[in-house]
Amino acid sequence: MLWAPVFFAMGIGGYFSFPYEPTLIIGISACAGLAVGLFLFWRFFLMRLLLIALLLSAGGFLTGTLRSHQLATPVLDKKLSPRMITGRVTDVRHYSTGKLHIVLSDPVMAWGYEGPALHKIRIKVQKFDQLPQPEDKIRIRAGLLPPPPPTMPGDFDYARQIWFQGIGAVGYAISKPEILEKGPDTWGLTTRQRQVTAEDIRASLDGDAGGMAAALITGLRAGISKEVVEDMRDSGLAHFLAISGLHMGLLCGAAFFSSRFLLSRSEYLTLRYPIKKWAAVIAIGAGVVYVLLSGGSTPTVRAFIMALILFLGVLTDRKAISLRLVAIAAMVILVLTPEVILSVSFQMSFSAVVALVAAYEKINIRWNRLSGQSRGWIRRTGFYIGTMLFTTLVAEVAIAPFALFHFNKLVQYGLVANLLAMPVMASWVMPCIVAYLVLAPFGLGDLALVPMSYGLELIMLIAKTVSETPGSYSLIPSMALAPLVMMSLGALWFSIWRSRWQAMGLPVILVGFVAALFTIQPDILIDNSGRLIGVRDVDHQISLSSLRAGRMTRARWAQRNGQAKAEKWSYNGDNLGEDTAMSCDSLSCLYRPAHKSPDTLIALVRDELALTEDCRHAQVVISLVPVEINCPSARLVIDRWDFYHKGGHALWLPEHSGDWITVKTVAGSRGDRPWSRRR
User: Fold this and answer.
1) Which of 378, 531, 567, 664 has a CA-to-CA distance to 257 between 20 and 30 Å?
2) Last residue in a domain, options 71, 105, 130
């Protein structure tokens, strides 16, 4: 039971790692064949276990395929010049900078558009007179672009993420949105009501306190400034901004205990009816309302499913807090939305929950004994602080590999920040949120928002102080996917098993950790448009050909290399000597990496006039213009047409003379998938 979501997730991972879009017949055939084999070999225990594991993996693979065929999101295939676009708003993000991100469904474009009928598009809006709301029909002049590919091979694929949201193009507005038809002002927890609620909260509370309050209540985090988000992330408090088990547990718990208390005031009901189960039903209803109000993000849904099963245990007189509960929640989410396996939210959320539940299950008896002995306020305070430290330590260790993989950042003082901020969140902010949900329908929400803002200001002060402390975080170069998978499987093995077998997971974690340390970063990077080149020097720092092109690409390359910022490369004149790694003139640059084979000379060509000379001497020619001549000395030639057809490139240069040059491309890493646009 506990391994079911693990094998199912492995099958989903196999689907996403396929080099092309698999047909349904592959997954169906695999499931059918394994089901027949399971029926035939059911009597053989080991064979049965193996076939069940393979069947679950095949089921995950088929689920991913079915999800892709179900969505079939059309994607814009070429850039469109600005034109009038009419559509109905499905989502609005109002950022603290005053800018908007608007998602339009079923857009109608002027000027004889002949491309695919797009389901949704996302547009950046700089100015507006009236804030559009979900379900409004608007008209706006905007240009559209195909979703951008990753900045380098193997990097985060934004186009894939929004493809599963039904978005097939992104764009920029050059006019203010004009509201043609207002959406219905119906009562209900719709996207429109969430947006209206968030705007009302931000109107009641100025600054980032209003943005955080709106985020905690509605799940819309666009109103929080970038500075506060960075402070929360660098201090290890970013999980406060995502509605998760903490928020859901407090809300459902408050609904359960308060309703049970009120019902117990009636002697007639207490003696004749199961008021405890009635209170559980009320708590489940409160959880449903909170899920709808907060937008149903992955951590929120996961927390609600666990709370639901917990209260179902109350209804059926069973104990439900266990890893089995986590496994059921994971299976439900993976079956409904298999693409969440790629999201950092899903990975970090479940890694922390699995680690915490497993840790407390292993020390349950000893922990209960300690809690029973904690009498007196000094011992109780010490027990509370110890529990907080232990919980934070387990959660931080569990999410650390995923934080390093996605953000290349290791937070040093997360324990201290959580120890200071968690009591404020649990005992101050969250009760105010519960009070707001009760008072808001009567127009009295401000009575809860004002005191809540004081707690939020205190949390932001803690985050800012910790993040600005020297050494608060370290930047780490990116790791490959394989070490992350190894550490995850080793941790799951250690967490799930209860016998001595669990110790076998520790060597797997150690091997994955060592492999992550020895991940080799690319020596040369070229962006998707062929306008920006990055090279690594002997100090393993990446430097760039330009600080003008590719702002987002420059930042992402630096982050993946464990740098705060990448600088322009330096060179010494136009003569390449023994002590000079880079020489440049107006036409090209010659680069000889000191940390690689001394026989490797790379020509970085900007003008075709340099090709005749550079092609006679360089072993690697990287040209931002088409190469139409023969390069007799070159082992590898990459020109503008390669960037056009294959996107960005990453090169690993040989350590010794005669070794292979490893080349990976963005197009090759993405494969031929519905979300990867082939030129």
Assistant:
1) 378
2) 71
The tokens for 256 are 């359960």
What does the pLDDT read at residue 579? 46
pTM of the model: 0.84
Residue 150 CA: distances (Å) to CA of 163, 194, 360: 14, 31, 40
Model confidence pLDDT, tens digit, residues 525-553:
999 988 889 998 878 889 898 888 888 99
Range of the domain at 14: 4-71
Cα(403)–Cα(399) distance, integer angstroms: 6
What is the rounded CA–CA span in Å between residue 672 and residue 514? 32
Based on the fold, state whether residues 279 and 422 are members of the same structural domain: yes
Q: CA 451 → CA 213, 242, 289, 455, distances in Å?
A: 11, 21, 23, 7
Backbone angles phi, psi at 105, to 5 degrees: -100, 150
DSSP 616-668: HH-SEEEESS---S--TT-SEEE-HHHHHHH--EEEE--SSTTPPPEEEEHHH
List the structure tokens of 582.
Answer: 């880079």
Q: What is the DSSP letter of 536?
A: E
Cα–Cα distance measured from residue 103 to residue 233, given in angstroms and rounded to the nearest whole number: 27
Residues 281 and 421 in one domain: yes
Please check whether residues 118 and 161 belong to one and the same domain. yes
- What does the alpha-carbon distance between residue 214 and residue 651 come to, in Å, rounded to a whole number? 45
Task: Classify 542 as helix, strand or coil.
Answer: strand
User: CA Rg, the chain, in Å?
Assistant: 28
Are the beta carbons of 48 and 41 closer than 8 angstroms?
Answer: yes
Task: With CA atoms as reference, report the closest residue to 179 among 104, 122, 113.
Answer: 104
Domains of the chain: total: 5
pLDDT class of 187 with cuts at 50, 70, 90: very low
The verdict on 369 and 463 lying in the same domain is yes
- Side-chain-side CA neighbours of residue 611 (13 Å): 17
Chain centre distance of CA 489: 20
The tens digit of pLDDT for each residue in 97-132 reads 778 899 999 999 887 788 888 999 999 999 888 888
Q: Are residues 272 and 391 in the same domain?
A: yes
What is the CA 565 to chain-centroid distance, rounded?
22
User: Per the domain annotation, does 660 fall within a domain?
Assistant: yes
Which of 115, 109, 116 shows the shortest CA–CA distance to 72? 116
Q: Would 267 be classed as within a structural domain? A: yes
Asked if 491 and 448 sit in the same domain, the reply is no
Backbone angles phi and psi of 455, in degrees to 5: -65, -40
Sheet strands side by side (includes 636-638): 582-584, 588-591, 602-605, 620-623, 636-638
